[in-house]
């Protein structure tokens, strides 16, 4: 089953020439195979030849799209990050009521996280580990996406304050606090999946947070 955060061919490219559609399809299959192998064996234990074999392509086809394993890894994380942020931004924008927007945002983040645990584990196992040579610059790019997301989340709190739904607190601090609470619960799923995989755990955290920011 394809992981939902891996870039896939969409209906937007139906009118592309056949060769370009084929290239997109091959690239997607390589990414799928790479994530599966990285998840099962560990990033450092997988070679480009392993990925080519897993995707059922010749090694030349693999190097046509990715110059080395780090490029392949970065394509996975960048593609996943882009889809993740687009999905959670849509969740904030589609719901006009600020309180419902926050609740929908939390639910969407949980679903994305659980649907793509292999990609999440890969990122934190490799990018945050010692020895990934482009780690510093790579993390800066991801932080830019995260900063933009926090600003959007803060704008929802700001709107809620104006509508007299939230207490008159700093919207940016509210966004950071919510982000931290969600991440704490979600990442505990990686450490203790049997205990923290239940949705009620995050619902409790959401209730605690909203109780603190909602205007009485």
Helical content class: over 70%
Number of strands: 0
Radius of gyration: 20 Å
The residue ranges in which pLDDT falls below 50 over 5 or more consecutive positions are 1-11, 129-135
Question: How many H/I helices?
Answer: 10
Write down the secondary-structure element order: HHHHHHHHHH
Shape: elongated
Structural class designation = mainly alpha
Q: How large is the share of residues in beta strands? A: under 5%
Estimate the mean pLDDT confidence.
82
Biggest sheet architecture: none
Distance between the termini: 46 Å
Overview of this protein structure:
The chain is mainly α and 216 residues long. The protein has 10 helices and no strands. Helix 7 crosses helix 8. The N and C termini lie far apart (46 Å). The N terminus is likely disordered.
Describe the structure concisely for a colleague.
This protein has 10 helices and no strands. It is an all-alpha fold and about 220 residues long. The N terminus is likely disordered.
Q: How would the blueprint of this fold be written?
A:
Layout lengths: L17 H24 L6 H8 L3 H7 L3 H26 L3 H18 L1 H10 L8 H28 L8 H21 L1 H4 L2 H15 L3
Descriptive key words:
216 residues, mainly alpha, 75% helix, 0% strand, elongated
């Amino acid at each position: 089953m394809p992981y939902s955060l891996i870039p896939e061919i969409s209906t937007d490219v139906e009118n592309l020439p056949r060769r370009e559609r084929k290239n997109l399809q091959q690239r997607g299959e390589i990414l799928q195979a790479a994530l599966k192998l990285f998840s099962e064996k560990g990033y450092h234990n997988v070679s480009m030849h392993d990925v080519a074999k897993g995707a059922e392509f010749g090694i030349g086809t693999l190097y046509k799209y990715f110059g080395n394993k780090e490029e392949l890894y970065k394509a996975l994380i960048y593609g996943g990050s882009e889809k993740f942020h687009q999905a959670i931004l849509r969740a904030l924008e589609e719901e006009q009521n600020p309180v419902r927007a926050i609740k929908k945002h939390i639910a969407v983040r949980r679903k994305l996280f659980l649907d793509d645990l292999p990609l999440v584990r890969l990122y934190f196992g490799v990018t945050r580990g010692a020895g990934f040579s482009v780690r510093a610059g790579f993390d800066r790019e991801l932080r830019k996406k995260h900063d933009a997301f926090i600003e959007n989340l803060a704008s929802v709190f700001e709107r809620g304050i104006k509508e007299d739904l939230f207490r008159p607190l700093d919207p940016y601090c509210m966004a950071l606090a919510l982000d931290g609470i969600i991440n704490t619960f979600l990442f505990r799923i990686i450490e203790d999946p049997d205990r923290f995989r239940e949705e009620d755990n995050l619902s409790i955290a959401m209730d605690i947070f909203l109780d603190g920011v909602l205007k009485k």
